[in-house]
Prior knowledge:
By secondary structure, the protein is an alpha+beta fold. The chain has helices at residues 4-7, 66-71, 84-94, 107-120, 137-146, 165-172, 177-186, 197-200, 204-212, 248-269, 274-294, 314-323, 330-344, 354-374; strands at residues 18-25, 37-44, 51-58, 76-83, 98-103, 127-129, 152-154, 215-218, 221-224, 226-233.
Amino acid sequence: MSSTPVAAQEDLTPMDSVEISLLTCQPHDEVYSLYGHTAIRYHDLRPGGFDLAFNYGVFDFKKPHFVARFVFGLTDYELGAYPYKYFLEEYRRFGSMVTEQVLNLTAEEKLILHEALAMNLRPENKIYRYNFFYSNCTTKARDIIENCINGKIEYAGREDYTPSYREMVHGMTRNNPWARFGNDLLLGIKADFKTDLRQQEFLPGNLLYDFDHAQIYSEGTYRPLIKERRIAVPAGVQIVQEGFPLTPLSCAAVLLAIGLVIFFFEWRKKRVFIVWDVLLMLAVGTFGIVLTLMLFSQHPTVSLNLQIILLNPLPLLFLWPVIRRRQTRYWAISAILAVLFLIGSFFQSYAEGIHVLALCLLMQCYANLKIKAQK
Length: 375
């Protein structure tokens, strides 16, 4: 949508008739909405006045290589503006509650924000490089509101609340274990560092809380940032789609049971099962390709990932010699890497179940190094 509806208004429009609000949307079952959403409402209360939702979360799944670009931090999102009623209808359909916080702005501040939104809607400005933690629909809304204030917003803070990015992601994906597994696989050690209040505001729920408790300091006086809070869409019934029946931890338990049974028979028969070796090497190598590619991602929290000690493409280089039962140093190297990987878990949280893969690999390293040596 173009900026015409907003930009067409005269600069002298009585801004006292305008309400500008922060909209915070409850998460729903779609993967892209597990963390909630934020938008801005611009409402001219006069008869026939515009009532628009400004949404910094517009994207197109159909664009070429969307998923790959998202993973590598090369995704472009854009600002869209459309009738507020359509925005509400979408979340009403999903059963997601929408909370509206009316901003306590002066007429001058409303005008500044009005002009900033119109400027952002221009074709040359509406597209921005998206980053999940640092530049998303929530941080963009926060920043443009902060920039229109004649004074300074002072946030109250959250006592004894200093979670890491990973802990906050876990909180939002507690009902979606495979989304949590995927995040933990890609996130590196920087995601385990403690965050400050501003960093925590990438989550819509945190920004809602902070705005509720914020004050605007201007010319020696304070006023609350939020004038009124109301529920725009009440919480409804959310339809949860059935996913894969096993959790990552359940899959890890199955893997461990298989690994122990195979190791027992290998020890009894004094013979290594090559098929199991190959399957483990393929699993480790496939994960390793993903983590190696992430070294080139623009996301700053994935660049240093200790899981790459274990999950790297090295097994794929030794796959053919192992299949041909040739002498190889792979198992000695792999044992060392697996031990280092387990030590690294004291410094970084790993994806659920990955420790089990390391243990299975260690058992096969022992089988290949000791059982073969006994022949």
